[in-house]
Amino acid sequence: MAVLSVDDLTVAYGDHTVFSNLSFTINSGDFLVVVGENGVGKTTLVKALLGLIKPKEGTINIPKDTRLGYVPQFRNLDEEYPLSIRDFVALNSRQSRWPWLTKKERHRLDRIIRITDLTKIAGRPLGLASGGEKQRAYLAQALLTNPRLLILDESTASLDNEMKYSLLDLVARFQEDGLSVMFITHDWDLAQRYGTRYLHMQADGYTAGSINELAAIVKGEEEC
Ligand SMILES: Nc1ncnc2c1ncn2[C@@H]1O[C@H](COP(=O)(O)OP(=O)(O)OP(=O)(O)O)[C@@H](O)[C@H]1O
């Protein structure tokens, strides 16, 4: 079952067309890796999916029951950033009794914090957390609303290998429970390790398919 489908999509900034006639589908449980050179339009695609840019042509179909979660690329936060990790994660709860959480919301928050291995440091200011901890906090925040599709934009870029694997292992656990994932990355190794499908964006078009086919592309890129 499709959780998102993109049909003949063209996105431009003014006269500058970033990509055109892009079509692909993400089905339930897919782990789609989006790869491509710098500047080819990966982040622009994410912005279009999140509704931040209006496409010039084409359609983006997101069924009503697809809730999106978004994990941005890690950015350095000021050490003085005042919120604790727990409060930062809680920002994404619906807070129907704002600023207090209902019992149900608190229960979910505690569960997500536990699963993302943040319980011991949940009271620590987010600004003082390590890069990997911050990224887990972003992930926890995105997972709090129980999304059906999680979009990760270069979310592992500033992490060492061990941290990358532990973050994506965590995501993969949710994927096993039916979460669909769209992961934008420059890392071919991670793409092949975790992906089930790929979308390779290029200046003159794109290819998409099953992850096994990505090996031939990687080989081609390495030979260039
Ligand atoms: N707000 C904007 N206005 C005009 N042009 C933009 C804007 N944002 C991005 N661009 C241009 O659109 C193109 C695609 O940028 P985008 O950030 O989507 O690429 P990317 O594939 O995510 O690159 P990277 O891998 O380096 O993050 C680039 O040429 C960029 O300069």
TrEMBL record:
InterPro entries xrefs: AAA+_ATPase, ABC_transporter-like_ATP-bd, Metal_Ion_Import_ABC, P-loop_NTPase
Molecular function, one GO term: ATP hydrolysis activity
SMART domains named in the record: AAA
CDD domains documented for this protein: ABC_Metallic_Cations (cd03235)
SUPFAM superfamilies named in the record: P-loop containing nucleoside triphosphate hydrolases
Entry keyword Acyltransferase: no
Annotated keywords: ATP-binding, Nucleotide-binding, Transport
Superkingdom of source: Bacteria
Span of domain ABC transporter: 4-223
Similarity section: Belongs to the ABC transporter superfamily.
PANTHER family reported for this sequence: METAL TRANSPORT SYSTEM ATP-BINDING PROTEIN TM_0124-RELATED (PTHR42734:SF17)
Protein name: ABC transporter, ATP-binding protein
Lineage summary: Bacteria, Bacillati, Bacillota, Bacilli, Lactobacillales
